[in-house]
Amino acid sequence: MRDNFNTSFGVLVAMAGSAIGLGNLWRFPYLMGTNGGAAFIIIYLVLVFLLCLPIMMSEFVVGRRAQTNAVRAFKVLSPKGRWGIIGILGVLASVALISFYCVVGGWTIDYLVHSVTFSLPDRGSSEGFFAAAVSSPGRTLLYTYIFLALTALVLLAGIKDGIERYTKIMMPLLFLTIIIIAVRSVTLPGSGAGLDFLFNPDFSKVTANTFLDALGQAFFSLSIGCATILTYGSYVKKNEKIVKMSSLTAISDTFFAILAGLAIMPAVFAFGISPSEGPGLLFVVLPDIFDQIAGGGIVAVLFFFVLFIAAITSSISLLEVFVTFLIEECRMKRRSAVLASSGVCLVLCTLCALSGGVLSDVRILGRTFFDLFDMVSANFLMPMCGLLVVVFVGWKMKREAFVDELSNGGTLKNRALYNTIFYIVRYIAPIVIAVIMVFGWL
Fold first, then answer.
1. Does the global pTM surpass 0.85?
2. pLDDT per residue over 152-200, tens digit each?
3. Which residues contact 81 (CB under 8 A, 6 or more apart)?
């Protein structure tokens, strides 16, 4: 008998944990910084709730209706078709993502350890500190393996006793801690410019690329296209409300992303740092800021603790996709499936972890292993899987079946809403995703 989530709150925190991750704390602030601040937020919100939320619901519908892993789900819903390729792409996307995600998760543990021991770099030496963290084989492998092992330990306990139990603890802690950091950030002298940047839109900086960045971030942040929502959906009971759960997940994810902006941008402006600093904002710029503010050592501990929690709640959902596949397709026990999937990821994580050091000169398509897994997952596997999911739901799956699942067998009365969601999935979503893919490849 398959394990399931036990409570509605358990479903919500697990799905929110999957969505809320490094994308909110690392990717969202610097994309916002390079795309007009509040203008980017407005575009992002429109795309999340009008386009990406229906796509998330589609994955949720497929998972709960089939009640099985990502690959078999499409075979169950279309026995004579070859739609199982969608699930295969989803599993591959989750494996590719976790392969480099564990490396970044390892960096968060590295920085957390140094913040707890008050040994973070002084102002001006953060860049060299980060370069050493990335290039040192022993150091980066140690923390990468610790992060992967912690992820596996949660999954060994199963759905109710593992994922649900630990995310119920971690997600409230995550929100509480980021709120504390945001309060400290907005009370810094000179933080008003950062608040103005966040909430006063500058549409002059909006370009076509801003829309692509916002939509790509929405995919990345909501875990669309890597089978995590589908897999979690298969563990959800039939009485849970898909529209409500998906909406609350998107709201929680967006709220946290804005909190992340409040925690980072006011401090960035308070110390005269460019908000368009780029990906290095998190690991290079912020330690310099912590070194300059009163109580900065404590704030640093809280921040990297938040970063670690955000990372591990997402890695749990990514690895669970592979674990569920092995349990149901290869008939493994959960323990064996967790160990086998962790073993595969261990090899791939090792290649990614060493990309900044001893394997930095090894290139495939001109990219290191780390960059290759990032590119393949974000630019091909996730959008392709997302595109095929909406094509399957919109054109292969009957509208009545889709509406039946959203309405819990007709017990929830809002047919106009459900039909609107279906038409977005059928007509609008495929076109927009195809555009993203073309521009991404170009």
1. yes
2. 999 998 877 777 788 888 888 888 888 888 888 888 888 888 888 888 8
3. 74, 396
